[in-house]
Each structure stands twice: as C-alpha cells, then as structure tokens.
Amino acid sequence: MAEMPSSVGAAAGAEGHPLLRRWAAGDGPQALRASIVLLAAEGLNSAAIARRLGVSRQTVTTWRQRYAAEGPDGLLDRSRSGRPKEVDEGEIVIGVLTCAPDDRTSRLLARRLGCSHTVVAQTRRRWNLTGSQLAVPSIPMTPAIETSDLWPVGVHLDAECTVLVLAGRPASPVPPARGVVDAYALCAVSTAMTDAVATAVETPAAVLDALAQDPDGVVHFLEAVRRTHPQSELHAVVLRARSSLLDPFGGDPRRPSIIESCARLEITVHQPPPRISEVSFACAVFGLDAARHPESSTRVLLDLAAALSVYAAGQARRRARWIREPLPALPIPTTWPTAASIGPAPRPAPVVPAGTASAAASPAAQRTAGPTSSTEVRGGANQIDLGSFNECVVIETVRVAGQITRGELAELTRLTQQSVSRITRSLIQRGFLVEERRRHSAVGKPSSPVRLRDGAAHALGIHIDPNVLTAVLVDLSGRIVARRSEPITADPRPGAVVTQIAAMGERVLEQAGRGRWEQGFLGIGVATPGPVDTVSGTVLDAPLMSVLRDVPLRTLLERRFACPIVIEKDCSAAAVGERWIGRGIRACDFVYLYLGTGVGAGLFLNGDLYRGLTANAGEFGQLCAVTLGRIDAAGRPELLPECNPASYHLVDHSLRQGGRGPKNLTVQQAAKAIGKGVLSVIDLLDVGLVVVGGPFFTEDVAHIYLTEIEHATNAYPTARRLRQVRVERSVNSSEAVAVGAASTIFHAAFTPRLRRPR
C-alpha cells in the first residue's frame, strides 16, 4: 500500500492552531487525534507518526483524513445509533429535578433520556435522589463530603479554569420539590455556560499570556467568596483547570496554586465525578439548590446566566465571576395552605340548565338545592358550603392531573384520606369520576386511579366575530363533540343576527344528538368583542359590529334556549379556554394575548379569570398606545393600527429599504409595538407566562410575534433579574374563543372559589 502524502490531514496553519495545541496538551482521545494532526503538520508521514504515538497506521490515516475534510470538528466524536455507551450523570440529575414527582421513576427517565434504566437507578442512588420527594442530596465528589445542605455561592470561569464554590450547612427539613425548579431559568444557565466555556476554549493566545501573568485571577475570587461567607464551610469544585494551577510545587512561585490558596482560606478542594461534564455538573448543583431552598429564587439562576452571557459575548475580556450574597441565618420555614384550612366560602350561583333533566348535576347545583342556598354568607360558611368547596378542589386537581390516585389527591389537596375517599366515592356515584384499573405497587395494596368522565358534562360555546360565527359543543375534557361555522349575515337588522346565532346553536346541538349531551348539559357561553355589560348581557360598542350596538343579546337568546347563558368578552373567554384545555401546563398565572379583529388581553391571576369591576378588563390597545406615547389632539390614546392585525402584513424589508415597498405596517413593526404593551402588563402584574393566540396569530407570523414579545418582556422589565418570562403559543385550535366560551360554563361550575363574585 502506497504511503499517504504528508500533506493530507495537515491543513495550512494546523501547527499554530491554539485549539489543537490545547487538546494535545490534555488527556483523552482528542489529545491523541490533535497530536496526529500536529505531527503531520511538521512533515512526518503516517508510519513515523504511528511509531511515535504507538497507534496503528490506519488510525493515523483516519484522523488525518477527517481533519482534512472537516477541520477541528472532524476530530470530535460523531453521534452513533443506539444508546450511548456513557450517560452524563448531570443530565440524569437535571431530568429528576425538572419532571413532576409522578414521572421520576427510573424507567420513565431512562425512556426520556434514551439510556438504560439501570444507569439511571445507579446515578440516583449515588446522588441520593431515589424517592419521588427529594431528600438531602449527596453529590459524589472526590474527596467525598459529609451529608449536608450545599448552597452554590460562587462561580469563576476563564480560559484557565472553571471553579464552583459550595457552602455546606446543616441539613434542614425538606420542602416540597413540586414545581420549585424553574426549568426555563435552568436552561438559560446551561446555554450561557455552554457559550462561556466555548469562548474560554477559543481564547486568543494574547489573552492566555495575560492571564498567565495575572497572579490574582482565581485567588482574588476565592478571597472574595470567603469574605462574603466568613462563617460557612466552603468547598471548591475544580471543574476545569490548567495543571500548573493545581500543582503546589511545579508552578510559578509568584502565582499561588488553587490548592495553596484554598488551604490558606480554609476551603476544601474537590474534583467532580468522572462521568459528568463541566456544564451539566454546574446545572445539576444549581438545580438541586433551587429544589431544596425556597430562598434560591429564579433570580439566582438568572443572575448567573447574565454574568456568563456577558463573558460569552466578549464584553468581559478575561473572566466571568458570580458571587452570591450572604445566605440567610436560619432556614425560612415554608407553610403550605390546605384546602380545608383556607376556610369555607360560598360558591357562585350554579350553572344548571333550566327545563333540562340533569342526572349528573354539578356539585354546586346539588349544594344549592336547600333553603340555605340563597343566603349570602360574609364571615364564614356552613358545612354544606365547605363540602362543595372541597368537592371542587378535588375535581380541579383531577382535571389538571388527568389521572390520579386517592393518595396523591390527599397529598396535593392537603385533605385527609377520609375526606378524599368520601368525596371521590360521591363523585363516582354521581358520574363525574371514573375509576381506572388498579395500579400495582411493591408496597401496600394496589391503588385505583380516578379521572374525570368526559361525558359527565357538556356546554355550548358561540363566538361572534365581525365576519364569522362559530359554535362548538364541548365535553368536560375540552374535546369538541360538534362544530359549525358560517359567515355572519349581511342583514343590518339586529334581530336577523340574533336569529342566525340561535339557529346555528340549535343545529350544533342537533348535530351532536340528544343522547350525547342532554343529561349533562350545563349551559351556553357566548363570546363577543367588548365592551360588554355582563350583568344584563348587553353588547355595547363592539368594534366593526354596529349591528349589535346596545343589543340585549342574552335576553334575546334566553327566548330560544331554556338554560343558563353567559356573555363574555372574546379575549377573556379565550383565556378561560386556554386554562381549561391546557390543564397542567396552564395551571399558573398567565396573560393571554388575543390577536383578533383587535388585540385584547385575558388575565388569569391567582387561579381565576380576572374580569375587573365591569368584566371588561384587558383593553390592551389603549395600554399599548399610552406606553408608546401615541396620544391624539384631544388627549385620548390613539386607536393604533399596530393593534389591528388586518392593517399590516408580511413585507420584504429589502424592498422597503429601497423605497419600493408598500407603505403599510410590517408584522415586525406591529410586533415591536405590541411587545412594548406586553412589557407594561408584565411590569404591572408580575407574571411569568404570556400566551399568544387568536385567529390572526397564524403560522407565517407566529415566530415574529413570539420573538419580539419575548425580547421585550425579558430585556426591559424592572424586575427582570427575578424571573424569566415565557412566551408560548396557545394550545387551543382555531376555534379557541368558541371553546373558551363553552369553558366559561365549566369554569363557573367547577373552579373552587373563596368568595362569591359581586
């Protein structure tokens, strides 16, 4: 076989490539591969390189060819099919921390991570994360550390080393880990640290020389951490470092090593476990901190991510540093309110169809059957009120979970096992819950999960839009049983429009068939552009719908339907639908940004829809105008074209810059203006989730809106260090508002409330 030419695999400049030199100076497979390329660059042939490095000629040829074809990236390991030989332990730990307690089994985690469940189980035992509830973790470092609470208090990262400092404290009682870890903030740390490490590895030689001559880099950092935490037992985990920084004898005498500095400052030096990367170890430690300590808010993660991002962006030339403020003197006790301890409260008026025989009446309906149902209670509640409230707590918990055992219900609701058994037995008998097959367990008797019976209740939702009418029949799970949509009539008489609305609703009910909905039919929800007088059910000044101006819509519809009818603003109805259909992923406060004929906002605050004094909260357009300073001559906020999606469209920006494009607004301009309005909402309400939906939130413009709104809500708010605002698409379909209108009926009947709405 002919000898390979020496030029193959020895790209020009390889002998001076700083990345290859650093790889060759280290250990592992990449050191061998970089050495092969560097020796080839010196003119050695494959046989000479194989003899010098003690490898086969085929190995030398392979890596020279890979470098010639792909550069330094060709020397990295390529992904292979099947399960990986080694799994990063940090990814397993992060997977445990960021999933729900019910999903923390080793098999489920292994399936999600694509590895063996045996490896997952071994890792969990090594980190002491074996139960569904997190115990005091045991981080497997060298040398080992005694079991204690560990708080990350400092991070130093530059081209020479990465050091993570932990403070050890006596173990405190374990708070519930459910929902504590902010997965988005943890992802921000992972992304920022990955970029920072890449920046450090690619540091120019001039900066490396400057760092080598700086005797106070990591030493000053360790001294600053000790000054900030003088009473704590500190542990320095060296995630990456030059050998000279760890050698107490062979380094520069003018520059003390990390080991010498830590000994002087009474800081114990540790090495991370072998099967873990620099980034994932740090993320795992910060994730454990967030899961264990209520004091470790999202701000801690976001502050670290910000410090690392500044370094990765090149704004901090030499190093990234983050030092935590002094820890609290004593653990702050966390109390968790229980459904029973909150106290009983009267429920709103029941939503039960008039003139319809309902065998599966709602808990609220059954409670109000006696003479006490009409009594307004202000200072307390009787036992019937308490039972109804707890029933709704159980129904809401089952709805969010999807399927849940009685033991898990008792844990989540903080009700007693006896109360949960009594309530679930009653709801099963009345047809609201269904008992699934028994779930076997290694300890104790098998448990029987329960879930909502989808067909236990139905509601009709009608959405009135200036151009189209939509009606849907929805069951208790949010599934659409029947639907119909048609253009709104051109007849300018209000009676013609109301007749069309009623006729379409009747056709949808007929389409579904009486046997599927009659027994559990709760009512009709109607969503219309605001403002709306919800007390009388009158549409006031709906934009682009002068035909319905001052029309008593509910009164007219009640002449056709013998059941309760609720009139709601379209954006508020869409928010309710998002909450009801979204289940667990929407079980938090959020702002629903509705892009329809105009732009409105639905507000879900403190577990309930916020309607305001007149049920007309969410007039987003005026707020957006005030935020942008767009005031007309009379002093009134302008009607912004940015808040009317019909007034703008996608435009080629290159054409606009050349003066040849259309003059109307681009989606980018509108999204920027709307983002400034959302910024004001976030600053005012302090929520962490914005959901965007509506008929004008189409696929071709979705990424523009999401990008601009996410940038505005995370870059500019006053409290941006405390939260990472998520901006997400609606989980609902194109019939979002109609489904939301029907969901308002379910929401009124089954959502636990402490006070009767006035």
Automatic annotation (TrEMBL):
Lineage at the top is: Bacteria, Bacillati, Actinomycetota, Actinomycetes, Catenulisporales
Question: From what superkingdom does this record's organism come?
Answer: Bacteria
List the InterPro entries. Answer: ATPase_NBD (IPR043129), Homeodomain-like_sf (IPR009057), ROK (IPR000600), WH-like_DNA-bd_sf (IPR036388), WH_DNA-bd_sf (IPR036390)
| Entries under Gene3D superfamilies matching the protein | 3.30.420.40, Winged helix-like DNA-binding domain superfamily/Winged helix DNA-binding domain
**What protein name is recorded for this chain?**
ROK family protein
Q: What family does the database annotate? A: Belongs to the ROK (NagC/XylR) family.
- Low complexity composition bias: which ranges? 352-371
Q: Where is this region: Disordered?
A: 338-379
Q: Which CDD domains match?
A: ASKHA_ATPase_ROK
